[in-house]
Design a protein that fits this description.
Low-confidence stretches: none
CATH superfamily of the largest domain: FAD/NAD(P)-binding domain
Strand content: 25-35%
Radius of gyration: 22 Å
Mean pLDDT: 96
Number of strands: 20
Distance between the termini: 12 Å
Number of domains: 3
CATH architecture of the largest domain: 3-Layer(bba) Sandwich
CATH class of the largest domain: Alpha Beta
Strand order of the largest sheet: 8-7-16-17-18-15-19
Helix content: 25-40%
Length: 425
Amino acid sequence: MTRTAVLGAGALGLTVAYRLAQRGDDVTVVEREPLPGGLAAGFEIEPGVWLDRFYHHLFASDRHAIGLINELGLGDELLWRRPLTVTLRDGTPHQLDSPASLLRFRPLPLADRLRMGAWLAYLRTLGSAERLEGHAAADWIRRRMGARAYDIVWGPLLRGKFGALADQVAMPWFWARVHDRTAQLGYLRGGFQRLYDRLAERITEAGGTLRLGTEVREVRTDPGGGLRVTTADGGSFSVDRVVSTLAVRLTCQLAPELPSDYRSRHEWGTAYGAHCLVLALDRPLTQSYWMNVNDPGYPFMALVEHTNYMDRADYGGRHLVYLGNYRPMDDPLLRTPTPEVVAQFSPHLARINPAFRPDWVTDAWSFAAPFAQPIVTVDYRDHIPPFETPVPGLWVASMFQVYPHDRGQNYSIDLAERLVRQPTT
């Protein structure tokens, strides 16, 4: 029986552990947080009522996540709807979630709408991003869709996600964002925490162990064979194999035996942190589910009104709104107390809905996650590590490797399935 330690209990780590436990490995999952789920974990807004810490949904194309949900017996709780997606431009929310709505998108002249629609159709039908390698998305969009389409639609979105590095983002990443998306969205009733709790249960049932609330400090070759995992509480244990699903930079910090040439190639690049302010309101704020904030001057890039998609009765009658951001790791927002974030953001909610008053807010929570969004530059592909590292028995699988797709539950699950199919794992 192979002893395997999986570092990280997000979608990727839990799927790896589940598959290895199914085939008979002695699996131990080590996770710093007190519950499974990683970036997709939830929190209780009242006893027994769970909400995701960061907004999540599935696309109809997310076959790996959908398949796992069905396999775990949760398929009947996966709801499919087509909520309204809008883009805020010049103070007005414009529907922009279909070819027909693009034709009605007044901030762009008709000729630009047609031009943009034609190139979007091209990207949707393009089977892979291979021919787009070496191109930056900003330059490609400006040349193909036009300067106005970039300045009004795509530039604000890229800057909102990647900040000052927006012009360096690779075109294959943009292709995947267009190619993978569907207007129909799926959500697991009760939140995606249910999926990760179920995975944890199945791992335990198969003989595996989850060590939640445990931080790994080091992974090093064990003189007796295999690898030794040392944890922050001073404990350690030996295994035959370690699968790290942490960011590559973090894995390099934990594994001092990784050679310098590996580090110089793969301990590379920049990643931003994710931040979400979640508000409970006593009335609706907007009419849309998803609002891309393309007007300048806002301190958040997206407004997601969850209860314009899911029934607010599922959440004790609350109207729930996410205000989302990606920021550099040294940005003060990632460490700002929730009341201060509410005070900073509230005047901007009144710009979106002039009737808004701070006393609409009945509760608020904020969450920050480090290394949540890799900056996918043009040379990104050259730095993606293979699964197997030069340290015998140490494997890596992280969202850095889902390229060209964006980070997300579906591609994390797909990556896990590909890893466990490796013949030498």
